[in-house]
Each structure stands twice: as C-alpha cells, then as structure tokens.
Amino acid sequence: MTAPTGRRERKKAATRQKIAEAALRLFLERGYEAVGIRDVAAEADVAVTTLFAHFPSKEALVFDQDQDFERRLGQAVTDRAAGEPLIPALRREVQALVRHCTGDGAAPIWRMIDGSRTLLDYEQSMRLRHAESLAAAIAADLGLPSATTACRTVARFVIDAYSLAREAADPEAALDEIFRMIEAAWAVARPTGDAPAGPAGA
C-alpha cells in the first residue's frame, strides 16, 4: 500500500490497518460467518462508526487492498515510461500483485474466501469493477472518449490473468502463457490509431 504523507493521513492509515488485521485474525480463528462487525470493532478497539468510516462492508475487511490494487493497475497504464508498450507494463504490475497474494500466509485467507459464497461473489464484483476501471485508463491513454470493446476485453483478460495465475501451481509460468495470448490479441484488436510503441506493440 502507498505510504501516506501527512500526519493525519498516517494516523488514518494506521487505524485502517489495525482494523483490517483485527478482522483477519478473527475471521481465521472463528470463521468468516461467525464473526460480526461489532466483534471486529471490539477486537480493534474502535467504534463501529470508525470501522465503517474505513470499510463500507464486512466483505471489504477481507479485501482491504482492493482500492490500492485498482489504483496500481491504472497507474501501470498512465505512469509507464514514454514509448513503453502497454501489455508488458500491465504484466509487470499483475506479476507484483500475484506475488503479493501468493506470499507466506496467503493460503489460509484464500481457503476462507473459497469457502464463502458471500466472499466469492464480492471478489467477482470487485474484479469486474477493476476491469472497468482499467479499461477506462487504457482508453484515456489512447485518447479515446470512452472504453471500446477492445479496451474492455483486454482489461478483462488482464484481471482474469491475475486470478488464474494466483490459482496456478506455477504462477510465473501461467503469467507467461496468459500474457503471450493477451499480447497477441491486443496486437490484432487495439483501436485504430494506436500505433505500436515498440517491437511488441503498445
């Protein structure tokens, strides 16, 4: 997560982190369904209103990096070096996200998510939102007034690449395979006027 700069922002970030850690601890100890919002607030030693000021729902407590992931994917498009192709830039960011979500201690969290219909539905809606946000960033980068079908399709592919690689026995090999297909598809489908930025295409 990006480090906040001001004292007030740092304090808010610390409170948010404390709540997220308390929630995860309780969820893993007791089970997601068995823990209520009041339980989390008490564990984190904050008021329920404070908890909701940082997290809009119980599900959001599990996916506390949601907004940061969405922002990072957009920045992979907007902040890449001049002339750097789009797809390799996205691959690099997805690779970083996959490493984060397959690190030590991640397996019990994903088992909890996979065992909850509520959390799986939330994750699905989150992925769709990330894909729409990424499609908008790609369209803006190309100077388009709105996301085209090609922009939305490649964005969906990129978000799905993250999920598929995270679940693979060899995430790195899975990313290599998936992004070869994404790059080939983008080379054919990218909107007219999007000239390649390098040998691999933009």
UniProtKB/TrEMBL annotation:
**Pfam families xrefs:** TetR_N
Question: Which InterPro entries does this one have?
Answer: Homeodomain-like_sf, HTH-type_TetR-like_transc_reg, HTH_TetR
Q: Which UniProt keywords apply?
A: DNA-binding, Transcription, Transcription regulation
The entry's DNA-binding region = 36-55
The chain's coiled-coil residues are none
Q: Which PROSITE patterns match?
A: HTH_TETR_2
All copies of the HTH tetR-type domain together span: 13-73
Q: Which Gene3D superfamilies match?
A: Homeodomain-like, Tetracycline Repressor, domain 2
Protein name in the entry:
TetR family transcriptional regulator
